[in-house]
């Protein structure tokens, strides 16, 4: 019998990153052991804010070439109290996403069995979304500058870039994502009333691409009205696509509405598969709980499941998520979900449950 082998790069980085990534590796090893038809090989990269403080660089010279050889990347979180956030974000996370053209950022959200949404009327099954975020340009293109520093007339620009190429590929990806889900329903979010150039291009391209997807039902929302709809009518939504900035904000709202930022995953995909894709929990390094053993590992488990899916191991991924949800259903959850156990207890419970699911 031939076993499939995948080489996974891990970048635990800062704060609770190392705690949740080691929990994720423990669960993934158990999944591959029980499944028996594929092997996972992990290689850790110690790139972090500590590396930056010692060497002046997050990624050493030649680092990206090494990273490129792996089948996927499992990323923890980056950010330290004594490094400005724009330095850490651009130094590590965006320094991987952009050259690897991981242009589709996919953020599924749902209410797990046994957990509660802060929305009074939303229960398991009522909120089940996938947010597709443009991940290569838009408001985070990094274009702009600052002049006259420190003067009263100091000026800064932050220029958004919307290229037809990138808008087309992300909208196409979003329609494809919607098509694969049972409801085949897509909401395209823009702000084309106020942002009358780039956002109008989005609207036009959406209408063009929609013609190739006559089986997908789609509608349009302005981003401000979208926040209301997410809160007041979560059942009316399924797949959502928006720009880099808008989807960044909407997906944090989505995670909170589903119960906690501690369960939400995110995939940075290169749909052309020329480069490895990167999988991470949505949350950051959470300094306030670092080292306390209370970080919720579920977001990392879910992102690890998304990684298995992307690698083609969908059956193993499905079983893994079944085990995770069985554990939340039994109330074995961390404090952010109203429970009282720690990272280790949740991780061990998932590993034990996997024995039953496989
Ligand atoms: P954060 O996500 O680190 O924390 C926000 C709140 O959620 C905190 O109260 C934290 O304790 C809680 N939380 C986060 N993850 C949790 C988990 N797994 N279990 C239980 N509770 C959890 O966001 P914050 O505080 O805005 O940022 C902290 C640092 O992380 C900053 O340096 C920021 O730049 C960085 N960051 C990095 C990200 C990344 O690597 N992709 C994403 C977001 C923030
Ligand atoms: Mg964010």
UniProtKB/TrEMBL annotation:
Domain Isopropylmalate dehydrogenase-like per the UniProt entry, residue ranges: 7-350
Enzyme class name: oxidoreductase
A Pfam family hit: Iso_dh
Swiss-Prot/TrEMBL keywords: Magnesium, Manganese, Metal-binding, NAD, Oxidoreductase
Cofactor(s), by name: Mn(2+); Mg(2+)
EC number: 1.1.1.83
PANTHER family given in the database record: D-MALATE DEHYDROGENASE [DECARBOXYLATING]
Organism: Zopfia rhizophila CBS 207.26
Keyword Lipid biosynthesis among record annotations: no
Protein name as it appears in the record: D-malate dehydrogenase (decarboxylating)
Family: Belongs to the isocitrate and isopropylmalate dehydrogenases family.
GO molecular function, one term: magnesium ion binding
Signal peptide: none
Catalytic activity, as annotated: (R)-malate + NAD(+) = pyruvate + CO2 + NADH
């Amino acid at each position: 019998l031939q076993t499939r082998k995948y080489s996974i790069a891990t970048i635990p980085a800062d704060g609770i990153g190392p705690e949740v990534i080691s929990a994720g590796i423990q669960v993934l090893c158990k999944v591959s052991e029980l499944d028996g038809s594929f092997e996972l090989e992990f290689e850790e990269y110690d790139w972090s804010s500590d590396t930056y403080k010692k060497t002046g660089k997050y990624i050493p010279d030649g680092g990206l070439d090494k990273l490129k050889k792996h089948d996927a990347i499992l990323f923890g979180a980056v950010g330290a109290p004594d490094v400005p956030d724009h330095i850490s974000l651009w130094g590590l996370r965006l320094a991987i996403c952009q050259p690897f053209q991981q242009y589709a950022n996919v953020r599924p959200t749902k209410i797990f069995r046994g957990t509660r949404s802060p929305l009074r009327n939303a229960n398991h099954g009522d909120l089940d979304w996938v947010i597709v975020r443009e991940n290569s340009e838009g408001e985070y293109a990094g274009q702009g500058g600052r002049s006259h520093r420190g003067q009263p007339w100091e000026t800064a620009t932050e220029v958004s870039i919307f290229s037809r190429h990138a808008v087309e590929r992300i909208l196409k990806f979003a329609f494809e994502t919607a098509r694969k889900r049972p409801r085949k329903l897509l909401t395209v979010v823009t702000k084309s009333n106020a942002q009358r150039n780039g956002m109008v291009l989005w609207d036009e391209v959406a209408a063009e691409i929609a013609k190739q997807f006559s089986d997908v039902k789609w509608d349009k929302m302005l981003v401000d009205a979208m926040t209301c709809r997410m809160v007041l009518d979560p059942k009316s939504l399924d797949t959502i696509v928006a720009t880099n900035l808008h989807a960044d904000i909407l997906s944090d709202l989505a995670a909170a509405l589903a119960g906690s930022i501690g369960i939400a995953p995110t995939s940075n995909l290169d749909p052309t598969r020329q480069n490895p894709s990167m999988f991470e929990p949505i949350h950051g390094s959470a300094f306030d709980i670092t080292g306390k053993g209370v970080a919720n590992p579920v977001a990392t488990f879910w992102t690890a499941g998304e990684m298995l899916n992307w690698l083609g191991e969908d059956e193993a991924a499905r079983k893994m998520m079944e085990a995770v949800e069985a554990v939340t259903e039994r109330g074995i959850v961390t404090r952010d979900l109203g429970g009282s156990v720690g990272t280790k207890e949740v991780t061990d419970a998932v590993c034990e449950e996997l024995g039953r699911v496989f």
